[in-house]
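Many introductory courses stop at the sequence. We go one step further.
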Amino acid sequence: MGLVMGTDPLDRQEGYVGSKNNPGQFDCYANAEPDEPMFILLGRDKSAPSLVRAWAFQRRTAIENGMKPASDLPMVAEANACADAMEEYREQRNQPRLKGI
């Protein structure tokens, strides 16, 4: 059975989404090793929500295939909630959603 994002309650985490001023539970900056490369997507980047959702989908698939632990499910939920928050952020600033990706 295929996964359809958005249909499972674990695909979204209501409430808190991290920001610069208030890092989330899965703050990558705090969890990074010294000198570990990283790339940060900002809410104003119109590609960010779809990229975050793609990461969440891949992680969820890895969990379902036993390649990642089920304890990562809350991280998937937070990522999807973050993608939603990124879209809301852009909409509040009259920056349209990216369509067709």
